[in-house]
Amino acid sequence: MERWAQTASHHHGDDDKRINTIGTSNADLPLVDPGMYQLDITLRRGQNLAARDRGGTSDPYVKFKIGGKEVFRSKIIHKNLNPVWEEKACIFVDQTREPLYIKVFDYDFGLQDDFMGSAFLDLTLLELKRPTDVTLTLKDPHHPDHDLGTILLSVILTPKEGEQRDLFQTQSLRLSDLHRKSHLWRGIVSITLIEGRDLKAMDSNGLSDPYVKFRLGHQKYKSKIMPKTLNPQWREQFDFHLYEEQGGIIDITAWDKDAGKRDDFIGRCQIDLSALSREQTHKLELQLEEGEGHLVLLVTLTASATVSISDLSVNSLEDQKEREAILKRYSPMRMFHNVKDVGFLQVKVIRAEGLMAADVTGKSDPFCVVELNNDRLLTHTVYKNLNPEWNKVFTFNIKDIHSVLEVTVYDEDRDRSADFLGKVAIPLLTIQNGEQKAYVLKNKQLTGPTKGVIYLEIDVIFNAVKASIRTLIPKEQKYIEEENRLSKQLLLRNFIRMKRCVMVLVNAAYYINSCFDWDSPPRSLAAFVLFLFVVWNFELYMIPLVLLLLLTWNYFLIRSGKDTRQRDTVVEDMLEDEEEEDDKDDKDSEKKGFINKIYAIQEVCVSVQNILDEVASFGERIKNTFNWTVPFLSWLAIAALCVFTVILYFIPLRYIVLVWGINKFTKKLRSPYAIDNNELLDFLSRVPSDVQVVQYQELKQDPSHSPCKRKKNNLG
Questions:
Q1: Do residues 46 and 103 make contact, with C-beta atoms less than 8 angstroms apart?
Q2: Which one is the CATH code of 320-471: 2.60.40.150, 3.90.226.10, 2.40.160.210, 2.40.30.10?
């Protein structure tokens, strides 16, 4: 590692001394007693900074890092080589041997930010409890001769000892316990947004583009946008969780969507859940306050005990009576009893090993989050440990057997949001019951490994008939999801995925056209004879029959060991490139004052990006159905195709079309509040796309983490 020197000048009152510091490894520094220090920094200004833009200027901002972790980021000063920030930061450090790194960047909208120089401040050279003015000379390690200007700081280092340090830790414990308790929910609020009536016109054409936002505590839901109407028909269903016995207040706001500018407020209303009776559906017509019109909703409150946390000593499936009761509840004899209750999931979070060190002390304070759709439970925090043992048992009610269990490990921080340490995503249909397994932790995008493994033991019990029925019902939407953001790499990846799906059809069309052109006389003759035979003998039942034969053919190929499925290295490479892009310095969220048209363009780009993803995923899901990527779904497809083949064989097409038409015309009369859905699309939504297949693949663990090897080492 190349070492480089820099100069920092400290001013203590009348004293003026210059200190030359050399960047060294931690091994070169003397060990100090661990403690707690408060570092107060005022970022004053920069002088003669480097020009990185074409106009001979820069848009500088500053990052502070300690122990590889970013602890502060300044605002952006546009078009200025002598910026004045005057920003203050308060940082808590466990020890002073880790230097404070200062990095300066030039902000570039939509591009990678340019490096403008870095410096570091040796905290061991600061006098305690004494204000110090510091001038740091910026350098580039690769070009140490370049003059990149200076950064001026004011710092004061204050020790926090004894009761003060214990107070910080006690507050952290109390906060984490409170946070954990908030995730134990006691019931479900099922809401169906039916329609709006006589809403206020917000646009110049006398109409609106309304959507509705719901909020219950930290839970949020946003409806779809209904364009150009004052009487929108949403017919959307979603669930919230009840965390309080007495209920709560649901805040509802209606908005008009405006492209390129701030959305217009239409009105608001509330639902007091404590006034509603349980286990009963209530039809509510709510008057919008501060606006005009009504919202019509169906609200159902259901008591639930479907999630729980316990220690390993309290285990539902090891208790013989409880296990028999659970097996009886999901036996084939009860296939039509409570169709929404598909199965039972038990997750034992045992321990983790070799986690990443997130704190400057070389340790972490890890806790684990277990999520299944909108059910989210947490373990306790194990402090100062890279090999934590939790030994907790979580139980969940399964509403969709195609759900994915997500287990995420975080590092708890006293003064900031938790740091990500690793994650695994496990489709329920891939789980092998009762097997303690070491899962290699992945990064946030689930595209590659990060440091550490986590040991889990998972059991799934479900009713296959209920699971099949639920496959044809819309998926439960997550109400806590990250906002979509514009990504060049993601846009390129989705475009390439869609192009590959389209090229399959294009190549097939070229092949058929080559038969018409008689490029190969034997092939064209065979195609002509086949065409005459099929057209002369065609019956409608042959369509599902051909698909059935294709599924069966691929199944026997896989069973015979001639698996034609290949790992999609193209998708994996694209995901790795996207991960590298995310690992680059994050773009500052501060706006640069562009006109509203820029934001409209960005919104369109995000929409195009999402459409490309949906189209590519649709084609990949169809392919993966026939490739037996999820055997359960392929078997279900075989059963459905068999039924369709028999129906189309024995029943004339005109009667089938007649029944379909009568059903479509009378559906609204029979069930006024029914939510429209497409069973085929609901089925395909359960089939993973190529990206999801890569994300759900298990990584091969390091042999050093093998349980067998651990036992041998212990015996030795």
A1: no
A2: 2.60.40.150
